[in-house]
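queue> pop job 88
queue> type: inverse folding (structure -> sequence)
queue> payload:
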């Protein structure tokens, strides 16, 4: 196993899978076997790759059966060149550690790597070819472009196979035969400034290969004379949600030189549909399927798909078959959900989304795949589990658009998706002042990209809109092409001109704002009525630096970088920004940390203070939008920038690359509780929030204001709170409290009518407010002229704790329950108690892990019960480690008992 770069296999092990499971995807090195039945789709699951500078034969030779690939690299089916080299452990040093990526080169140091084309070669075995059988090669996007050869014959040119997103079916029937066959792609180098591929701007360093390769894979498709593609179900849901009308379509293509009569039949939501159609030679038709004499399928009392927190997420199935002369020619299938998506522009000019007639506050994060675009199903599933655990309801994809599995997971979990093209580079070159206009070839690739993405996304109930621009709206010819293409593909969802406040003639005003910040500001900033404050729809925004936990900092930074992190605020950090000077230093964050919490005394102290700050700031961002969701100038959406990172980073994430939840994660989780109590920095109001659709009655709130020593200076009980669904309301304005220490606490508890805890929230505040210099704001930062003083937190006495632990097996998981108590005799409150699960002889973290709550603050005499769910690992002892701001690190063990099985 590689010890260098964190490969897909290492990622699987990190996520709790065995070594054997991690290698499973790499174990199948036989040629891809294609079954005989029509309608089969067989992904090429293994390539061999080599640089054309070393493999200098032509495509005819390389694609010939029996060509010797000695010294080629075996790679998985969706590997970019860099991903493939990482699979083969080519690099001596971990490219994710320190700045090792700068020095990436292959052993021969020829200097041609990544600037010359690379060969991708695979063998495939056809059970049957010839007769009425047709064989297609389906590419799902190739970065940047490729020539195609099959069995010694050149089939397509790189001018025809170009772009990261177009799906293309290339018929190769005349060149294949039953038995062994070979295919070769000559993949040309990528440059996101010159091609419609994938770029990373300031997210992370540029991958050395610019992600060249068939990153979404290539399929071998077997069909009869008539092929089916692009199955589509368009639901129209009545206002009372009692009836849905389904428009059902599929594209039928006659691959023969003779005409055919074809019967397309099948089921949609278990209801039969059928249509007969005549296709001339080579003719392609979009076929509308009918339910008997009715042109559409009607569902009474349909199972309605709701976003997470608002209801269930049921899915229906569509499956159809094409029959020619009584013989199955091809099949097509898809899943879909019944829901209604609408959006409008508020009187203030901001976009408001409505699902099934219910307006909702969009609360999400920006998605990043692995920077080498490695395909890892286990990791993707774990990331969606984190999204659910966080309580957010939306993911925004700014380019780097994912494959079908991503949207399937979103559908099943009820996570909304806002997809769109990325900023900068070639994608927005024509939109910038003085930018290079696109040529006809660019327009063709962009149009094919838009059509392919529309067909991929349109059946998924999770998808609620598409951004045709990001940091710029596209110029008129592009905007018209995008919207015309979407309409031609039966796109019924909102089309959004850009993620900034711009408009196009076709899509209208975006209803978005992108006014920053991207760097450190205090929690109170979010309640302001300007820039990135909580009003309207913020398409991307956060306070910038997010520091992982100590062991992750140590495994991503060199000792010298670790020292600079806490000691030298002006030092460049490669893991902050390799190529973008604005964010290459953490100076605003470091200055705030030193002023508010005290100058760090070492790396561990720096990281601990960073966890307090990240928790506090991320929570405030989401809570401010909560507080204003029903305001006169309403908050309608916020996308935290970002959800995750493409590589280990000191910026912009709710969970780090190692999937180790830290302060930012738990601050976001707290702020996004479905039923929640919170404090407003601007008005000092206590607000209760209900993100569900169910009204709550007779809730009970308890508010305490405490001095640093824990003494209660103000206490109030608020009984009999009635809270409507999908609503936020103030229940108390905390009055001015005399005699407060400079650093003090606000402790909020919300209970149900029967007294059961619903939400708990603790704030550490200063009588000295943070002050902002709004007049000097820019696109990424508002300067601070005076910082709040929280330095007294460092003077708290050491707290004591009592911990009880039990663990059970639950299917493929283990579930650990922890009772955390601070005894009445403790000298102080326990601040920010962080719990982790460790196991095995080396005490490795159990990841991914989903806690019911974490980073807990408790006063003497208080206790809380927490649970953690994580993948089971046979034979590994379970240890709960608790590390607090002012309490020593301690470990607690318990036996494992057998629980319920799933």
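queue> result:
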């Amino acid at each position: 196993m590689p010890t260098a770069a964190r490969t897909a296999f290492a990622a699987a092990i990190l996520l709790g899978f065995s070594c054997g499971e991690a290698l499973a995807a790499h174990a199948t090195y036989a040629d891809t076997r294609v079954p005989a039945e029509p309608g089969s789709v067989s992904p090429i699951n293994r390539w061999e790759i080599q640089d054309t500078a070393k493999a200098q034969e032509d495509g005819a030779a390389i694609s010939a059966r029996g060509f010797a690939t000695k010294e080629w690299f075996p790679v998985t089916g969706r590997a970019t060149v860099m991903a493939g080299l990482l699979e083969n452990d080519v690099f001596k040093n971990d490219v994710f550690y320190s700045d090792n990526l700068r020095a990436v080169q292959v052993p021969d140091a020829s200097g041609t790597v990544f600037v010359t084309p690379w060969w991708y070669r695979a063998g495939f075995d056809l059970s049957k070819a010839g007769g009425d059988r047709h064989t297609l090669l389906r590419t799902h996007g190739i970065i940047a472009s490729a020539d195609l050869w099959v069995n010694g014959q050149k089939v397509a040119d790189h001018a025809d196979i170009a772009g990261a997103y177009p799906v293309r079916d290339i018929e190769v029937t005349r060149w294949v035969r039953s038995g062994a066959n070979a295919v070769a792609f000559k993949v040309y180098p990528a440059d996101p400034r010159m091609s419609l591929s994938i770029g990373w701007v300031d997210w992370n360093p540029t991958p050395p290969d610019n992600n060249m390769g068939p990153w979404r894979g290539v399929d071998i498709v077997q069909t009869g004379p008539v092929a089916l593609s692009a199955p589509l179900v368009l639901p129209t849901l009545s206002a009372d949600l009692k009836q849905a009308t389904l428009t059902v379509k599929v594209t039928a293509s006659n691959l023969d030189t003779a005409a055919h009569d074809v019967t397309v039949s099948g089921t949609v939501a278990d209801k039969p549909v059928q249509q007969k159609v005549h296709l001339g030679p080579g003719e392609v038709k979009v076929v509308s399927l009918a339910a008997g004499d009715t042109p559409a399928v009607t569902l009474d009392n349909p199972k309605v798909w709701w976003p997470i927190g608002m209801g269930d997420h049921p899915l229906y199935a569509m499956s159809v078959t094409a029959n020619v002369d009584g013989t199955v020619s091809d099949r097509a299938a898809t899943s879909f959900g019944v829901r209604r998506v609408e959006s409008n522009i508020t009187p203030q000019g901001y976009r408001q989304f409505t699902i099934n007639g219910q307006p909702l506050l969009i609360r999400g994060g920006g998605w990043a795949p692995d920077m080498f675009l490695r395909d890892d199903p286990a990791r993707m599933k774990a990331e969606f589990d984190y999204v659910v655990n966080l309580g957010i309801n939306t993911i925004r994809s700014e380019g780097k658009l994912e494959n079908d599995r991503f949207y399937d997971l979103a559908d099943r979990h009820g996570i909304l998706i806002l997809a769109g093209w990325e900023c900068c580079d070639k994608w927005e070159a024509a939109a910038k002042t003085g930018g290079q206009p696109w040529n006809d070839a660019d327009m063709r690739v962009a149009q094919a990209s838009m059509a392919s993405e529309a067909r991929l996304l349109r059946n998924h109930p999770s998808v609620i809109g598409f951004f045709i621009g990001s940091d710029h709206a596209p110029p008129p010819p592009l905007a018209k092409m995008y919207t015309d293409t979407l309409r031609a593909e039966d796109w019924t969802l909102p089309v959004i001109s850009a993620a900034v406040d711009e408009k196009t003639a076709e899509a209208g005003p975006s209803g978005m704002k992108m006014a920053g910040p991207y760097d450190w500001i205090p929690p109170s900033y979010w309640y302001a009525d300007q820039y990135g404050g909580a009003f309207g729809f913020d398409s991307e925004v956060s306070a910038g630096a997010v520091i992982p936990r100590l062991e992750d900092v140590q495994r991503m930074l060199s000792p010298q970088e670790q020292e600079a992190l806490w000691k030298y605020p002006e030092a460049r950090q490669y893991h902050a920004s390799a190529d973008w000077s604005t964010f290459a230093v953490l100076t605003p964050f470091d200055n705030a940390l030193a002023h508010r919490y005290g100058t760090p005394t070492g790396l561990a102290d720096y990281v601990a203070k960073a966890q307090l700050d990240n928790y506090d700031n991320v929570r405030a961002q989401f809570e401010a939008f909560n507080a204003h969701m029903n305001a006169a100038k309403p908050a309608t959406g916020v996308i935290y920038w970002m959800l995750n990172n493409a590589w280990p980073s000191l910026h912009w994430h709710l969970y780090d690359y190692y999937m180790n939840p830290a302060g930012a994660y738990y601050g976001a989780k707290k702020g996004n509780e479905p039923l929640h109590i919170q404090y407003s920095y601007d008005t000092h109001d206590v607000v209760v929030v209900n993100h569900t659709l169910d009204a709550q009655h007779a809730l009970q709130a308890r508010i305490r204001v405490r001095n640093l020593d824990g003494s209660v200076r103000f206490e109030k009980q608020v009984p009999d709170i009635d809270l409507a669904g999908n609503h936020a309301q103030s229940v108390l304005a905390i009055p001015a409290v005399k005699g407060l220490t400079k650093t003090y606490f606000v402790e909020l508890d919300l209970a149900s009518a029967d007294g059961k805890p619903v939400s708990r929230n603790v704030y550490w505040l200063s009588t000295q407010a943070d002050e902002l210099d709004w007049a000097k704001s820019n696109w990424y930062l508002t300067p601070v002229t005076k910082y709040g003083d929280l330095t007294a937190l460092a003077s708290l006495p050491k707290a004591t704790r009592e911990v009880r632990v039990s663990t059970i097996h639950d299917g493929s998981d283990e579930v650990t329950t922890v009772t955390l108590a601070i005894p009445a005799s403790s000298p102080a409150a326990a601040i920010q108690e962080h719990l982790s699960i460790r196991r095995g002889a080396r005490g490795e973290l159990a990841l991914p892990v989903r806690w019911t709550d974490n980073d807990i603050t408790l006063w003497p005499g208080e206790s809380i019960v927490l649970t953690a769910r994580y993948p089971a690992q046979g034979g590994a002892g379970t240890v709960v480690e608790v590390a607090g701001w002012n309490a020593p690190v301690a470990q607690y063990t318990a036996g494992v008992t057998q629980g319920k099985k799933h």
